[in-house]
């Protein structure tokens, strides 16, 4: 099993090696980076980053030369590549394990030595084009979408020979499902119009909507006041213009058709503009965006808080294929947020979509409750009910089974004799426990154990989630630091970019680390898990290492620490990639089975 | 604000048979309401007390109506809250207080256990309608007859 895994690595690497040679003509550029001045390359920011990114393979190439020997050794050991799986012996496998582990460790351990001279391939993940995904996608703002919607309304209006405003109402009624609308409308236009509350077109022109009364002689039904200006639809239900305006304002953001307060006749965009002022009706479209996006599955809201970007995925049909291959359909919005187009969480690699979904559901369900129960309650030693002590002495009586026990040692109370608050009955407790029905205890212990396991990973997950938020805050200040650096140290913008890039690396790596804990919770406990965990530990260490650097606030200090920043983020990026590819391989080969 | 007295006058001056709505003297937005149980319903003979409050945004938002008398009804819960479309998403400013109260009376005449608020009542109503109606009658006699009318829990 392991051998197979191993040999695929070898192959992959050799393939990469070939690819890397293409990049060798850039070697000269690489040397330029050594003296720390990227501007020497003479490119703008973005070109720059892609150039540097493309240099990365070379670095790995160098790192890996030593390892290739090792791989070959392994091949000899295990026989030819693919027969391996069937006739592995246990001993072989263990050696493979070690090598396997070494492999992933080496990726970065070597690079740690080398990367001191080489600089920053970290944009790999941050540059939109480099996100590893086979999806085709495009970002839209809500404004773009409103334009698109109104274009659709115009097109549909041409087909159905209706006003744009009428079409908006029709589409709103049909939840922006234009197929259903066309079907229904072609079938029976009058019935559809009636249902949606559109006036038959002839009447509209004859009816005068806006009226002015002399001496405020109109008594508005809504506010019971005498008013001058009124508005009414062709149904002749007349209200003062102020009440109408308030009525519309209340309903503009619901995304639904607005009707006359009294009957089902609907207000068109022209009516709304006439009552509330020009341009108000655009809000009608804006409020429909949510429905529009929900209706059209190729549009996905970026799940990042307050982002508001809508990503259009053009090859939706590929997502199931990706999922089958345990790949995550990642897309990237224009604000730089990566998210999964299938489950609409943030990029949750290395956890697969199934794992991510289960995990999020689980966390939603009970994490907080369980946490509270575990921290605030103890179980009754007899019936295992969770008991919260909210005051009083330590002589507890279980409400359920009437067991009297000591809160401190959980032993039976009568054994305490006179030594009430001086609990020294540790051994007694053990004896008591034995008397309790054994099976019950084992069951309860198992649940407790599994809770503990869950909580362990949940805590790790949430700690990193919180840290991500804090880091994000800190990294948001990076821009400011960059500006300061430019002013105080006279460093060019491009030279100060290392800070931004390190920040992005840090955030990404933390995210990967976070989700790896979710993944590992659903993994069976095997030998490979140990390896996996050690890789995870390495990543965690690297993350903390870089995170610590961001505590530096003095600009000059930051400049001095530049090399450190670059080293650590390079190291971190490598660790992260090692983690990701390791997970991928383990899942693909089924060596890290998940229990779902 | 200034519109309120006129509206209140309207409510008082246009009474509906079987329904009374009297505003509090110190707060004209707050009404004491009584509704007679409709004939040929389990609530027949009962007089139900309700409270009605007109929020600041009235008439753009619906008035708040709540039963004060205990009642056994699938669309009215223990606290007297009412599940009625015109009080929620089908509210329109053109609806009046009297139409709302009429709707509530109609709800008493036609309970809708398929869209319940009080789940236990609705279940009983669906599984054992006669029993449920008997309970409703009992409750009406116990809580909603003029001699004994007591506020809900």
From TrEMBL, chain A:
GO terms for biological process: protein ubiquitination. Transmembrane segments: none annotated. It comes from the Eukaryota. It catalyses: [E2 ubiquitin-conjugating enzyme]-S-ubiquitinyl-L-cysteine + [acceptor protein]-L-lysine = [E2 ubiquitin-conjugating enzyme]-L-cysteine + [acceptor protein]-N(6)-ubiquitinyl-L-lysine. One of its GO terms (molecular function) is ubiquitin protein ligase activity. Coiled coil: none annotated. This is RBR-type E3 ubiquitin transferase. It comes from Wickerhamomyces mucosus.
Automatic annotation (TrEMBL), chain B:
SUPFAM superfamilies: UBC-like. It comes from Wickerhamomyces mucosus. The lineage of its organism: Eukaryota, Fungi, Dikarya, Ascomycota, Saccharomycotina. One of its GO terms (molecular function) is ubiquitin conjugating enzyme activity. It comes from the Eukaryota. PROSITE patterns: UBC_1 (PS00183), UBC_2 (PS50127). This is E2 ubiquitin-conjugating enzyme. Residues 1-145 form the UBC core domain. Its EC number is 2.3.2.23. It holds the Pfam family UQ_con. Keywords: ATP-binding, Nucleotide-binding, Transferase, Ubl conjugation pathway. Belongs to the ubiquitin-conjugating enzyme family. It is an enzyme of class 2 (transferase). InterPro entries: UBC (IPR000608), UBQ-conjugating_AS (IPR023313), UBQ-conjugating_enzyme/RWD (IPR016135). The active site is at 83 (glycyl thioester intermediate).
């Amino acid at each position: 099993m392991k051998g197979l895994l191993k040999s695929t690595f070898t192959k992959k690497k050799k393939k990469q090696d070939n690819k890397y040679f293409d990049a060798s003509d850039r070697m000269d550029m690489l040397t330029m980076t050594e003296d720390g001045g990227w501007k020497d390359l003479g490119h703008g920011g973005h070109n720059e980053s892609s150039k540097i990114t493309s240099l990365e393979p070379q670095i790995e190439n160098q790192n890996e030369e030593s390892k290739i020997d090792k791989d070959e050794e392994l091949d000899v050991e295990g026989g030819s590549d693919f027969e391996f799986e069937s006739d592995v012996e246990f001993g072989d496998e263990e050696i493979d394990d070690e090598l396997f582990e070494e492999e992933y460790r080496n990726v970065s351990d070597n690079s740690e030595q080398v990367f001191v001279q080489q600089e920053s391939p970290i944009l790999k993940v941050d540059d939109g084009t480099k996100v590893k995904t086979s999806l085709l996608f495009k970002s839209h703002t809500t404004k773009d979408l409103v334009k698109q919607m109104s274009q659709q309304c115009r097109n549909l209006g041409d087909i159905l020979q209706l006003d744009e405003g009428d079409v908006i109402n029709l589409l709103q009624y049909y939840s922006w499902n234009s197929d259903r609308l066309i079907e229904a409308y072609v079938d029976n236009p009058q019935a559809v119009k009636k249902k949606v509350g559109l006036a038959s077109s002839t009447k509209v022109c004859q009816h005068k909507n806006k009226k002015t009364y002399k001496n405020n002689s109109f008594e508005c039904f809504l506010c019971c006041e005498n008013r001058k200006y009124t508005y009414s639809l062709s149904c002749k239900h007349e209200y003062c213009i102020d009440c109408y305006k308030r009525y519309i304002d209340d309903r503009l953001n619901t995304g639904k058709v607005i009707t006359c307060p009294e009957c089902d006749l609907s207000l068109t965009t022209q009516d709304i503009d006439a009552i509330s002022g020009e341009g108000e009706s655009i809000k009608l479209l804006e409020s429909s965006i949510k429905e529009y996006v929900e209706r059209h599955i190729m549009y996905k809201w970026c799940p990042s808080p307050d982002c508001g970007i809508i990503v259009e995925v053009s090859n939706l049909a590929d997502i199931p294929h990706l999922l089958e291959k345990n790949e995550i359909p990642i897309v990237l919005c224009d604000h730089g947020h990566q998210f999964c187009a299938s489950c609409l969480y943030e990029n949750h690699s290395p956890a697969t979509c199934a794992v991510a979904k289960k995990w999020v559901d689980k966390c939603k369900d009970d994490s907080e409750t369980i946490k509270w129960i575990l921290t605030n309650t103890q179980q009754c030693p007899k019936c295992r009910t969770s008991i919260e002590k909210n005051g009083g002495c330590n002589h507890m009586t279980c409400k359920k089974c009437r067991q009297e026990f000591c809160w401190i040692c959980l032993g039976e109370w009568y054994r305490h004799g006179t030594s009430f608050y001086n609990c020294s009955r540790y051994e007694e407790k053990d004896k008591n426990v034995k008397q309790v029905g054994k099976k019950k205890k084992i069951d309860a212990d198992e649940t407790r154990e599994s809770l503990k396991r869950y909580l362990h990973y949940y805590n790790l997950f949430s700690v990193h989630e919180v840290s991500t938020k804090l880091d994000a805050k800190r990294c948001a200040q990076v821009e400011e630091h960059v500006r300061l650096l430019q002013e105080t140290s006279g460093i060019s913008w491009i030279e100060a970019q290392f800070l931004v890039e390190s920040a992005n690396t840090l955030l990404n790596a933390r995210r990967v680390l976070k989700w790896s804990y979710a993944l590992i919770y659903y993994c069976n406990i095997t030998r490979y898990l140990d390896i996996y965990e050690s890789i995870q530990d390495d990543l965690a260490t690297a993350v903390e290492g870089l995170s610590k650097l961001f505590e530096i606030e003095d600009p000059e200090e930051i400049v001095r620490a530049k090399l450190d920043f670059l080293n650590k983020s390079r190291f971190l990026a490598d660790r992260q990639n090692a983690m990701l590819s390791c997970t991928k391989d383990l899942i693909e080969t089924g060596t890290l089975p998940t229990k779902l | 604000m200034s519109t309120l007295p006129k509206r209140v006058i309207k409510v008082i001056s246009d009474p509906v048979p079987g329904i009374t709505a009297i505003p509090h003297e110190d707060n004209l937005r707050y009404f004491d309401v009584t509704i007679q149980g409709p004939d040929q319903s389990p609530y027949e003979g009962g007089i139900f007390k309700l409270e009605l409050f007109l929020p600041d945004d009235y008439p753009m938002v619906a008035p708040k109506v709540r039963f004060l008398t205990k009642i056994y009804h699938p669309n009215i819960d223990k606290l007297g809250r009412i599940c009625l479309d015109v009080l929620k998403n089908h509210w329109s400013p053109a609806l009046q207080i009297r139409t709302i109260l009429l709707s509530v009376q109609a709800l008493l005449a036609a309970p809708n256990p398929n869209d319940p608020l009080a789940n236990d009542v609705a279940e009983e109503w669906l599984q054992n309608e006669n029993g449920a109606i008997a309970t409703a009658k009992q409750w009406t006699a116990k809580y909603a007859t003029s001699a004994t009318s007591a506020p809900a829990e």
